[in-house]
């Protein structure tokens, strides 16, 4: 980002300016392949003064617009201001007062492994008898927190093998081989959830004051990034990740042992404008248009039985029968939390307590393991499967972009050293998981190596 990007284009309105800010600011990320990027030399003192002055003028203008009612949408103004302030503070902490170059030092990322299919075996037709899980909660004690360090390549091959269910009710199992495993990436590091058990205690999803925003108005609901959020007919949320693919949580289609009721004829709902034929003078209203799914894919790492679920692999990919015409959000390997602006994540979903509304939230990341993101983003049943995203630096395009780094799973109670803590949890996309999902989408692992 340069100082020139801080100035509003001639003739552009406030909404255009907010949109530019929303798409230009974001967090740093680590590229998929090992790269080296030089950090620019420290800027001169007058550059710092100009930068701080522009920051001051922008903040003052935003506050003035909001107080005088000239902002197009108060929620948009507030979100843009908060997003800008936290991003600026993050850059300030990372770069210090020795210069304001926004080229943050980029660390090498583990090479993307190759997921290569070996055998595809036909299975019995699924029964679709399980009850849909709209409110997943697991419990993890010290035993499961210590587990799963030092997984072997055979373990990864088992967990990344997957089942495919087709619209005609047939089912297959595909075993995979994994090539290019980085030895440093075979350990989970930190807490692991190998034997996180289902737990029946009270589920806490709202932390203090409810920090969720209901998105209203066709203008915002049909605009990126909110337009990438879709509804799943089993009661969950999903996110568009290609022209015909939707990511959601595995527990929205499978309870760990059986496929859930409705997963055999699963559909994806899009918000689209609709004009009444009876009164053509009325403005378009938004309705849910449902599209059938061609096939559903679930990793074997999820299928361990309802009493032995692992949130680590709580993700599933749905392929639509035909391409959609909506924008989608790209995937990336989740960067370390330290490389995310403000250490924040965002996601939108169809929470059950706000029927018919799209609900957006953002919050800071409290902790992370190799597989999970721990946070206190407020959420209710129905938000499961929401795409968790952050703004990451795209080294190829040389700009900040929103990218999906995980899937919202549910809630987990942790017991460490006799002390219990509770978090809302998202699946974190490791290089392995990214390689698997990318292969599902593109059908050829070679197209994922340099993605």
TrEMBL record:
Transmembrane segments: none annotated. It comes from the Eukaryota. Keywords: Hydrolase, Protease, Serine protease, Signal. GO terms for biological process: proteolysis. GO terms for molecular function: serine-type endopeptidase activity. InterPro entries: Glutamyl_endopeptidase, Peptidase_S1_PA, Peptidase_S1_PA_chymotrypsin, Peptidase_S1B, Trypsin_dom, TRYPSIN_HIS. The keyword Protease applies. Its EC number is 3.4.21.-. It holds the Pfam family Trypsin. Residues 224-351 form the Peptidase S1 domain. Gene3D superfamilies: Trypsin-like serine proteases. The keyword Metal-binding does not apply. Belongs to the peptidase S1B family. Belongs to the peptidase S1 family. This is Serine protease. The lineage of its organism: Eukaryota, Metazoa, Chordata, Craniata, Vertebrata.
